Amino acid sequence: MYPSDQAQKLVIRLPDDVKVFIAEQAKRNGSSQNSEVIRAIRNRMERVAGAQSSGR
């Protein structure tokens, strides 16, 4: 990861159930909620890239 002062900032609104899920995952993984959101987005990016490369 890189310093947060070099990262782009984005404010988002989350449904309560999504916020609770992110908080629970962060606690379970010993990470920040921000890290959990980034992990989820990166996982999605990998799935999309894999689907595109396989011609789906």
TrEMBL record:
It comes from the Bacteria. Keywords: DNA-binding. GO terms for biological process: regulation of DNA-templated transcription. The keyword DNA-binding applies. Residues 6-42 form the Arc-like DNA binding domain. The keyword DNA-binding applies. One of its GO terms (molecular function) is DNA binding. InterPro entries: Arc_DNA-bd_dom (IPR005569), Arc_rbn_hlx_hlx (IPR013321), Ribbon_hlx_hlx (IPR010985). Pfam families: Arc. This is Arc family DNA-binding protein. It comes from Microvirga aerilata.
